[in-house]
TrEMBL record:
Keywords: ATP synthesis, CF(0), Hydrogen ion transport, Ion transport, Membrane, Mitochondrion, Transport. One of its GO terms (biological process) is proton motive force-driven ATP synthesis. This is (wild Malaysian banana) hypothetical protein. Its main location: mitochondrion. PANTHER family: ATP SYNTHASE SUBUNIT. One of its GO terms (cellular component) is mitochondrial membrane. It comes from Musa acuminata subsp. malaccensis (Wild banana). It is found in: Mitochondrion membrane. It comes from the Eukaryota. InterPro entries: ATP_synth_F0_gsu_mt.
Amino acid sequence: MASKLHQLRSKAVQASEFVAKHGCAYYKELLEKNKQHIVQPPTVEKCQELSKQLFYTRLASIPGRYESFWKELDGVKHIWRNREDLKIEDAGIAALFGLELYAWFCVGEIVGRGFTFTGYYV
């Protein structure tokens, strides 16, 4: 355990040295590449204004998202009504989607708990 801690510490020291040497150049390069996205002058007031614009723009997009949701739901209802005509490829896609949902919710929960399993043991 102590050797792993020593390895981790040495890797952290190496990473911090790399950032100390190359961090400033990376920062300047990043700003130069993305200067079209920088609002001038970069003041606190401008940041607050942009934050409000983002919030209210997202708020204004809710009706469109709501409408899209119901269109998607109607499409799923249509497929469910005509499930006799369902091809094996469509069923495979649905199965993969279900597996992805399982991974996002269940496996993500396990990872969030630090890979610990809780519950009843038999």
